[in-house]
Design goal:
Elements (H helix, E strand, L loop, with lengths): L8 E4 L5 H12 L3 E4 L6 H11 L3 E3 L2 H10 L24 E2 L5 H15 L6 E4 L6 H12 L3 E3 L6 H11 L3 E4 L1 H14 L9 E4 L6 H10 L5 E6 L4 E6 H6 L3 E5 L4 E4 L5 E4 L7 E2 L3 H7 E4 L2 E4 L3 E5 L5 E6 L4 E3 L2 E3 L1 H8 L5 E11 L3 E10 L3 H11 L8 E4 L13 H9 L1
Parallel strand pairs: 1-2, 1-3, 5-6, 5-7, 7-8, 8-9, 22-23
Antiparallel strand pairs: 4-14, 9-10, 10-11, 11-18, 12-13, 13-16, 15-16, 17-18, 19-20, 21-22
Helix pairs in contact: 1-5, 6-7
Length: 418
């Protein structure tokens, strides 16, 4: 196999492993761009996604990975970010492309992550999510580049994770709230393992129910737990969990080097350093729609809505594509979910909209737990204005989620309509 050249694109469609992380770092060291993708994609999905990214190589087997590693240079300074694809909830997923960075920008990118999360040579990082997703791969890369050790116990299983915690004493872990919920349920049965080795537990990807947040603070060492807000395109905020006790619902303040603002319609915009800028590969019109010039510099949005309080703390209201407009009133699912999740008999909840001939859309809720519909209606009536109260409730045994823990609202709405 020939050495990939600068800005060549190499699609990786195989399960995560230590060699996978090594290949990603060494491709970026060579100035080539790995495209991490779910190896479970169907042939149709692969063709649709790869058609717009035009990779120079597609790696689908361990033998092909061996051939690639044989020609790559040793791990060094990554010259960009992996080209992850957005989720594709509307249209074909888009490749987020950093472009080839010069040495100063590449070092700034590396140091920014290291400074925020304090990656160390003695770190032992436990991976819970598939490495083709951006956050799990970013934390694994940060640990490896600092000289630390990465643990890959395989597909998420609470018992296996618990065994890894006991045997390997990890110091850091990235997860989503759904992981925490399953771990806590398992520990309620088998007992809580010794968690004193953790110096960092970071979570993101979905709203964290208040009870899960409280349990997190009770079990893990003081000062070790963080929430951050970001997207495939870029990172916005970070927040110690203790800060959220004083400001419930916040996802923190702007990360160093970033400036956040909101439009009158509550759309969040983020100014980032030059090394953190991006474009959508092969989609100049989508890139132009995501960016605008501001007095503080170029700013981008991913369509999230929120507010920023007087001290700079961000509170998310939802995504533009999740917005429910009912009778001319904007309803953000995240706000309604936060209220309903406080009910003691609600274990999980997702709010979505379905077409309504009179109101345009009506608000609906899928609930996991033992709360009956009348109790939920009474609970919502006390806490939400009429437009925000779900009109329909469904009880499910679990919510449909992606592998990163995000609720598949479109699937809920389609099932409801069906």
């Amino acid at each position: 196999m020939q050495l990939p050249g600068p800005e060549d694109r190499v699609a990786l469609l195989l399960p995560g492993s230590h060699r996978y992380v090594d290949a990603v770092i060494r491709l970026l060291t060579a100035g080539a761009f790995p495209i991490p993708l779910d190896p479970k994609l169907t042939a149709t999905e692969r063709a649709r996604i790869l058609g717009g990214l035009a990779p120079h190589r597609v790696i689908t087997s361990e033998s092909e990975l061996d051939e690639l590693l044989a020609v790559l240079p040793p791990a060094g300074l990554p010259r960009g970010r992996p080209m992850h694809c957005t989720s594709g909830t509307t249209g074909t997923p888009k490749g987020v492309y950093s472009g080839l960075l010069d040495d100063d920008s590449a070092r700034a990118l590396l140091e920014e992550e290291r400074d925020l999360w304090d990656f160390r040579a003695d770190d032992v990082h436990l991976v819970l999510s598939p490495l083709h997703h951006s956050a799990p791969l970013r934390f694994a890369m940060g640990t490896a580049l600092a000289g630390g050790r990465v643990l890959l116990p395989g597909p998420f299983d609470p018992a296996t994770v618990t065994e890894a915690i006991l045997a390997d004493r990890p110091t850091s872990m990235f997860c989503v709230p759904a992981h925490l919920q399953r771990l806590f349920a398992h520990w309620d049965v088998v007992g809580v393992p010794d968690l004193s080795s953790f110096r960092l537990l970071a979570h993101a990807g979905a709203p964290c129910p208040p009870e899960v947040k409280r349990r997190l603070l009770e079990l893990f060492p003081p000062g070790s737990t963080w929430e951050f807000y970001g997207s495939t395109e870029g990172q916005f905020t970070a927040c110690r969990s203790e800060e959220q006790l004083e400001r419930p619902g916040t996802v923190g303040r702007a990360r160093p080097g970033r400036t956040l603002s909101v439009d009158p319609d509550h759309t969040l915009w983020c100014v980032v350093p030059e090394h953190a800028r991006f474009r959508y590969f092969g989609a100049p019109e989508k890139t132009a729609a995501a960016w605008r010039e501001t007095d503080a510099g170029p700013a981008f949005t991913v369509g999230d809505h929120g507010r920023i309080d007087e001290d700079g703390y961000v509170h998310l209201e939802g995504r533009r594509e999740d917005l429910i407009i009912t009778g001319g009133v904007n309803v953000y699912p995240a706000e309604v979910e936060a209220v309903l999740s406080e009910h003691p008999d609600v274990a999980d909840v997702a709010v979505y909209g379905v077409p309504d001939p009179e109101w345009g859309h009506r608000v609906c809720a899928a609930v996991v737990g033992g709360a009956d519909e009348e109790a939920l209606r009474d609970f919502a009536r006390e806490r939400l204005v009429p437009a925000k109260r779900p009109k329909d409730y469904r009880t499910l045994t679990s919510l449909p989620r992606t592998s990163t823990g995000k609720v598949q609202r479109f699937g809920l709405a389609d099932d409801h309509a069906g």
